[in-house]
Amino acid sequence: MSRAFVFPGQGAQTIGMGRALAEAYPAARAVFQEVDEALGQDLSKLIWEGDIETLTLTQNAQPALMATSMAALAALETEGLGIATASFVAGHSLGEYSALCAAGSLGLADTARLLQVRGIAMQEAVPVGVGAMAALLGLDYDTVVEIAHEAAGDEVCQAANDNDPAQVVVSGHKAAVERAVELAKARGAKRALLLPVSAPFHCALMQPAASVMSEALAAVVIEAPLVPVVVNVRAEAVTEPDRIRALLVAQVTGAVRWRESVQWMEGAGVTEFWEIGAGKALSGMIKRIAKGAATRAIGAPEDVTAALVAQQPA
């Protein structure tokens, strides 16, 4: 049996996430403490006691979700189910940073600081109200690419997230994305709706943020990962540090090829996917992509216990 650890992206955040892990596992608590120190702020207090609007701010949500994922991984490590038991790691958008941290490519403090910079840069790249994103459900990726191209006109509209066989997200100028929604409905989409996001992620409008991340990433050490990282923009495993660095920059404006990434891992022999951190969104996508694969979400102490029990011989 081959296992992949996968790490969630923005949208999975909830108040209180990871707190039970920190209370049950000293190693998990240490993760939150190190992230707080790296950022010079009490992020863990915001995560556990704050308001969801502040937590959802991109510069807070990104390091917070990574910290929660790394805390869950620390709990798994404590029980002997850590990174050495995975054949691959992957993450959705910011989750790719969590995957790289999990695999030892990035240090925890560096990852937290990079994600804070990334969150601020992505928010500042496009004035509020200029861009938008929309989920188009019930249409395949190629159809959405055609719709985005038609909707763009002289503006930007791109397929940004290829999440699963029937869920693709477009991103770009607000008017162009609104045109894409109407075109999708006319093409038979089951649903087409604007998303409550603060910026148009993973499209060409994010180029200013990509430039910021290029400088930020040039200043940190990236090691070869302990296990291969399946990256968003290539949908294949990568292990070379310089290539990882370049692809993290490309990821800011490039599409998240999640469906293809899961298919690649399935083709490489992965039979079970463990979602490490907050929520179960990736597990739902994976069930629609790799229908024969098993999924498991690890976000609380009872999840770690269940995973441990499942490893015991019958």
From TrEMBL:
Q: Which residues form a coiled coil?
A: none
Tell me the active site: 93, 202
| Keywords, ordered alphabetically | Acyltransferase, Transferase
Biological process annotations from GO: fatty acid biosynthetic process
| One Pfam family here | Acyl_transf_1
- Ranges for domain Malonyl-CoA:ACP transacylase (MAT): 6-312
- GO cellular component term, pick one: cytosol
The keyword Nucleus belongs to this UniProt entry's keyword annotation: no
- Give the EC class as a word: transferase
Which GO molecular function entries does the Swiss-Prot or TrEMBL record give?
A: [acyl-carrier-protein] S-malonyltransferase activity
Statement: the UniProt record of this protein carries the keyword Transferase: yes
Catalytic activity annotated for this protein?
A: holo-[ACP] + malonyl-CoA = malonyl-[ACP] + CoA
Enzyme Commission no: 2.3.1.39
Q: Which family does it belong to?
A: Belongs to the fabD family.
PANTHER family from the UniProt entry: MALONYL-COA-ACYL CARRIER PROTEIN TRANSACYLASE, MITOCHONDRIAL
Quote the protein name from its UniProt record.
Malonyl CoA-acyl carrier protein transacylase
